[in-house]
Known about the structure:
By secondary structure, chain A is mostly helical. Helices cover 72% and strands 0% of the residues of chain A. Chain A has 13 helices and no strands. By secondary structure, chain B is mostly helical. Helices cover 69% and strands 0% of the residues of chain B. The radius of gyration of chain B is 27 Å and the shape is flat. Chain B starts with 30 loop residues before the first helix and ends with a helix. Chain A: Pfam families: BPD_transp_1 (PF00528).
Amino acid sequence: MSIATRTARDTVEATTGITASDLTGRGRDRNVKSVLFLVALWFSLFFGVVVLIALIVDTVIKGAPRLDAELFTNYHSKISPDTTGFRAGILGSIWLMFATALLAIPLGMAAAIYLEEFANKRSRLHRVIDVNLQNLAAVPSVIYGMLAVAVLALFDPPFKGIVIGGALALALLILPVIIITTREAIRAVPQEIRQGSLALGATVWQTTWRNTLPSAVPGIATGTILGLSRAIGEAAPLLMLGVAMVRTDPTGLFDKVTALPIQIYNFSSEPNEAYQIASSAAIVILLAMILGMNALAIVIRNKFQKSW
Amino acid sequence: MAPTSTTTAGSPRPGVGLPVVPPDLNAKRRPGETVIKALLTLSALTSVAITFGIVFAVLAPAVDFFKEVPFTDFFATSDEPGAVSAAVLPLVVGTLITTVVALALAVPMGLGAAIYLSEYASPRARKWLKPTVELLAGVPSVVYGFFALFFVTPVVLQGWLGLDVNFTNSWAAGLVLGVMIIPTIASLSEDALSAVPHALRQGSLALGANRMQTTIRVVLPAALSGIAAAVVLGLSRAVGETMIVTMAGGSVKNMSLDPSEPHMTMTAFIATTAKGENPVGSVEYNALFAVAALLFVITFVINMVSIAIVRRFRQEY
C-alpha cells in the first residue's frame, strides 16, 4: 500500500471512525451467532484434516513393528505371517504405473491439444466430446475395470491379471483427468505467445509444438503426476481384471502382476492379526508413494508456475 | 493534431498489398501436419469411443442375463432360494443408505470448508489449506476401507461412542465415504463461491451486514447452482465408490434401513462377484453386468444432471 493511500485511509479512520476491518465486515463479526458460525467453519475445515491425521497416526503405530527390510524383500506368505512381505505388490505397482503412464499420457495430451488448439469450439462434435469427458471423469472405477475385461476377452485365451490389462483399465480411468488438466494448462498460455509465432509465419502445429506446449509443461506435469498418483492407489478396476496375489516379479507387459492396494485388500479379510500389522505397514509405503507424488506436483506448480 | 498515417498523402490506401480477407492460418499446409492433425483428432474421439465401449461391454452380457432371468426376479426384494443371486433392490437400498450417510457428513463439512476458504481465509492461508484438504482425495479408497474396518468401527463407533454395531456396518462405510468426498464438494463449491463478484459482497457490507450475513444471504444464494453441481458430483462419487463399501459395508443383501447393520451395495456386489470363480458367460457372471449396467445408468443420469445444472444455471456476472 502506498503512502498516499495509507494517509488517506488514516484520515478516513480519524474523521469517520470507520476502520479497514469495518470495510471487510470483520469488525462486525463480534456477536455470538457469527462467532459460532466461524467456529463451525473452522470445525468443518479441520474435520477432514483431523481424520487424515488420525488415519496416518493409527496406521503408522499399527504398522511400525513391521516397517523392516523383509517388508520390501519378501513375498507374501501363508506359512509365516510374521515375515510376510510386499515385494511383488511394490514392484507390480511400479510396473503398472509406468505402463499406465505410457498409455495415458500421449493419448491424453494429444486429445487435449486437439480440443484446445485445433477444434472448432462452436461445433457440435466439440460439445459432444466436452460433455462426454466430464461424464467419463465421474464414471465409477469398477466400470472401467469391466471395460478392460471386455477388451481383454477379445483375445483367446482371455488374459487374466497381467500388466497390460491392469494398465489399460488404469489408463482409461485417468485419461479424463489428464485431458482436463492438460487443457487447463494449455488454456492458461496467453494468446499473444501464439500470435507472435503465427505472425512470423509458423503453422498452427509449429506454434503448438514449439511455443504453446513448452509454456504449458509445468501445468501438464502437475496434472499428470496427480493422475498417476490416483492410479497407483486404485484397487477396484484391478479386482475386476482378476489381478490377484502372485509371488513373482513382473518382467514384461504380459506377465501376471499384483499391486499394493490389491494385497492390502486381500490381507484385510485375513483373521490373523499379523496380516493386519503387515497391511498397515504396506499402507504406510503406499501413502508415502502417493504423498511423495502429490508433494512433487505441488513443488512443480509452485516453482515453475508462470504468471504472464 | 497530426493526421493519422492512413490519410497522409503518398501512403498506400488501407488494405493495399494485403489480401482482403484475413489469412486462414490453417491454410498453410505441410505434408506431415495433416497426419498430425488426424492423429490428434483421433485421440480426442477416443474418449467418445470409450463411452461406447463401456456401453457395449456392459450391455451385451446384461442382455444375455435378461434372456434367462425375468425382470421381476431382478427387481425383487430378496433372492429366490436356490435360484441365481439376482435381486437388485437390496443392493440399491444398501447403496442408498451408505450414500445418504456419506452426504450427510460431506455436504456440511465440504460446504463449511469451502465457505471458509473463499470468504474468510487470507490468500496465503488459502494457498496452504486448499491443497491440504485436497490431500483427502488422494488417499486410496482401499486405505479408507482398511481404516473404516479396523479403526472407525472398533475404536470410534463401538469404543468411544458405545454404539451397538456389527463388525461390518453402513455407519462406518458411509462416514468414511463421506470423508473421502469432502474435497470433491469443498473444491467445486469454493470455485463457485469465488466466482461471485466482489461488488455483491461490498454492497452487502456497505449496508452494514457482517461477514456471516453477507455469506449466508448474498454469496451462498448467488453461488447456489455451482454448489448444487458440486453436491450432485459428490453424490455420483458416493454411489460409484467400491473399495470402502466392499471392505467395511459388509456383503449381506439387506433391505433394512438401519445403518448399524451390514448392507451390500451395487459396487460391492460387482467387486465380490468378479472375484469369485464364476465361469465367463454363466448366469451368475452375467448378473454382474446387469448390476453394472444399472449402476452405469444411475451414475450417468446423475452426472448429466450435474453437467446440466452447471450449463443452464451458470450465472454470468
